[in-house]
Design a protein that fits this description.
InterPro entries: DUF402, FomD-like_sf, Ntdp-like
Strand order of the largest sheet: 1-2-5-6-7-10-11
CATH topology: FomD barrel-like fold
Keywords: Hydrolase
Number of strands: 11
Shape: globular
CATH class: Mainly Beta
Strand content: 25-35%
Domain DUF402: 26-135
GO molecular function: hydrolase activity
Largest sheet: 7 strands, antiparallel
Number of helices: 3
Radius of gyration: 15 Å
Protein name: DUF402 domain-containing protein
Helix content: 25-40%
Length: 158
């Protein structure tokens, strides 16, 4: 569900149980979450809530896919190329970069262009620093507001 936009991007929400798929992968959302689709940046960020009951099954607090800038195809379809690298804040607060090995492998095997590699690495470095520092939209409060709005629209709030 498209919720609205702010200076960080367009915010969308998905309810727990939603089936999500991309080529080669199908999964079910373990918890309600909101995703920020930035206006021009090289990432997509998913934020899970911190409600003690509703969000107990959340896999992460924050999961940021490093990807090419998003291209909206109408109101409901977003296209971007996932560039393997992910910045994750786990439920314990630990922050790390995931899939650096996949990025290195695909960079060579798929022949990622030099400028794509450069943008991906720069984006990963800057997103990692922003998540660690708690800068918006990675501050918790920004996404919490959007998640609250999503829950109001889908379930009448808490």
């Amino acid at each position: 569900m498209r919720l609205g936009a702010d200076r960080h991007g367009v915010w969308c929400g998905l309810v727990r149980g939603t089936v999500m798929s991309r080529p080669g992968v199908t999964q079910t959302a373990a918890a309600d979450h909101v995703t920020c689709v930035p206006h021009e940046d090289w990432w997509l960020a998913t934020f899970y809530g911190s409600h003690p009951v509703r969000d107990a099954a959340r896999p992460f607090d924050t999961y940021v896919d490093i990807a090419t800038p998003c291209d909206w195809q109408g109101e409901h379809l977003v296209r971007a190329v996932d560039l393997d690298l992910d910045v994750i804040r786990g439920t314990t607060g630990r922050v790390w970069i995931d899939d650096e090995d996949e990025f290195a492998e695909h960079r060579s095997a798929l022949g990622y262009p030099h400028d794509v590699v450069e943008h991906a690495m720069e984006s990963c470095t800057s997103v990692l620093a922003a998540v660690q520092a708690g800068e918006p939209p990675f501050d918790g409060a920004t996404a919490a507001g959007w998640l609250a709005l999503f829950r109001e629209k889908t379930a009448g709030g808490d």
